[in-house]
Amino acid sequence: MTHRRVRRITLGLIAAALCSVLSACVITPSTFNAVDAEDELVMWSYVGSDEPSMLALNEKFERQNPGVQVKVVNIPLNEFGPKLVAAAGTKDGPDVIIGNPVADFDLLAGADVYADLSARLDNSSLRQKVQDEAIWTDGSEVLALQWRFNNLGFWYNKSILSKYGIEPPDTVQELERAMAKVTRESKYYSMVMAGAPQVPTAWQAIHWMLGYGANYCNVDSAGTVKAMRMVDRWQEKGLLAPHVTTLDQNQAFDAFATGRYAFAIGGSWEMASLEESPLKFDVGTSLIPAGPQGSYSTFAGESIGIGRYADDPGLAWELIKTYLQPSSQLTTFEMVGALPPSPEVRNREAVQQVELSQPFVTAMNEGRLKPWPDNSRTLEAQTELGTIYSSMLAGNFPPKEAADKMSTAVKNAFEKGTGGC
Fold first, then answer.
1. Is 67 left (phi over 0), alpha (psi -120 to 50) or beta?
2. Mean pLDDT across the stretch 383-394?
3. Which domains does the chain have, with CATH numbers?
């Protein structure tokens, strides 16, 4: 990723900002204990202490470093950022941070939560092995590395499409015609996607906007209006799932898995879940149907970094190297469907032979990815956009008004934040 422009700001203000964006949080100094033993690395994470790929890589590191234990402290997402900021304010904190950089990097970088990895990265081969978007920087400092990517793609029920002579759509125009045919000629529903007032809903919405040339940094463009009119038309024609505004990202894909829907927007991580619990029908994946400007993608996923006040940053760096070993990247892909940060690893047979993975891999290529804003209030902007989009789907206001509200909300969020867009 290009250098992130983050200005240092008061730690207390950052903690307050995070608490205002997220739900109520309680910051207690007792949670700041970084290291309990000389040979223990304490890792703070929000993904759960039993997340399978993280556990597998920690166990791999422990085998490679006898006598060292990785202790995972899971912190709820709504408390994760504030506790990191408050810990840094007392010159304390974890050894290793599993972060959600799309949402929190700019805030945490501005709070001196992370240690600089620049010298270590320059003296290793990792810089050449991961793509630019995997390197999270603040000015000249490298503060975190993406150890797994997630992105969104288009899923379709091959059985339904075959039965009604429908080809997988490449464009939004073809998609709309296909959805109309499913609705008109079959007993099935057309498409299910996230519509609840949440950040993941905004992530799905932005993909339709990208097809019309709109993004967070030009949300006031005509492309936003056109994208909102398109989705609103789908809703009015009954082409979207009933009660779409109540569905979060996981619930939407669960609905697709029932076999009652022809199309869905779903994540790369669903590949792993289908390996464990195969569906009763054939599925296919493709890039999200293109708008007039094309088909583009944004990414999510987790980063790994060293806490600025880690007791043993050298040992923490060894853990990072373990996470980014090619074999570790493949382990993560196989276990949870997350995409490797290394283009070379993504091109290996173990990834390429998984047919469902191809659109997700393609979407990570240069020319397909659109950057996230370099602003400390990006999470707030996402939250507002998802809420407004959901309200539009619920019929609370027309698409032009929704686009105007999005523009105002995103602008206000970024004006309160640090960094640009």
1. left
2. 97
3. 11-150+299-363 (3.40.190.10), 151-298+372-416 (3.40.190.10)
